[in-house]
Amino acid sequence: MRPIIALLTDFGSEDHYAGTMKGVILGICPDVTLVDITHDIPPHDVMAGALELAASYRYFPAGTIFVAVVDPGVGSARRGFAADTGDYRFVAPDNGVLTQVLRESPPKKIVELTERRYARPTVSRTFEGRDRFAPAAAWIAKGTQLSALGRPIGDVQKLDIPVAEADADSVRGVVMRVDRFGNLVTNIDRKTVERLGQHAAITIDAGGQRIERLVATYAELPAEGVGALFGSTDHLEIAASSSSAAGRLGLTRGAPVTVTRA
């Protein structure tokens, strides 16, 4: 199978940045298949990048190489690194963008990107995605071992990503991201809610506002109100029929959500 490199950045599509990274990769490894996860992460929002990558990476074939560049510290003393989790390999700045991925899939090896032969001859202090991260991923796709890219390191920077808390009668979490439809995606997963009782009646509060009911599909949402369901990542979402729940409720990332046994 052709090697696969998947890209996630905050570069957008109006400028040349994402396309230029692809050009560098193809110049080193012409046989690679390139996949865009997204280039529309909000600028400098490392947390959003970490969450979007975690929502997507498991659906790629084993062996896929991921390049995640959401890098407000570009050109600073922060490190670049590559990580191997066994099934996947990742290239990123050391700023926490891989926090959730490495929480779910602990790395077997991490190396700092210090070997200059696997970067472009001149590394821009404003575009390391092009000059350091893209080349490293391309060389990995060509079969270069991680150990050739630089010295081993023991740990990397981590974001403080909230984890839902549960007791016998309730689960307390927060909105982690708002998708483009205005759905409020929380850190409360289906299994945690089901521990309240498979057939238990529950109430849901989002930012102090009562959510009308829990449904199975978007089509079952109340026509004028706001409901909840478990989305494609099996996490609780607050959603509105054909409109933005975030807009209707005036909520965004970090808003508290509580599920309580009725």
Number of helices: 6
End-to-end CA span:
52 Å
| Second CATH tier, the architecture of the largest domain | 3-Layer(aba) Sandwich
Please report which band the strand proportion falls in: under 5%, 5-15%, 15-25%, 25-35%, 35-45% or over 45%.
25-35%
The assigned structural class equals alpha+beta
CATH topology of the largest domain: Rossmann fold
Question: What radius of gyration results from the CA coordinates?
Answer: 20 Å
Regions with pLDDT < 50 over 5+ consecutive residues? none
Please provide a written account of the structure.
- There is one protein chain.
- The protein has 262 residues and is of the alpha+beta class.
- The chain has two domains: 4-148, 3-Layer(aba) Sandwich (Rossmann fold); 165-261, Elongation Factor Tu (Ef-tu), domain 3.
- Helix content is 20%, strand content 28%.
- It has six helices and 14 strands.
- The model has no long low-confidence stretch (mean pLDDT 96).
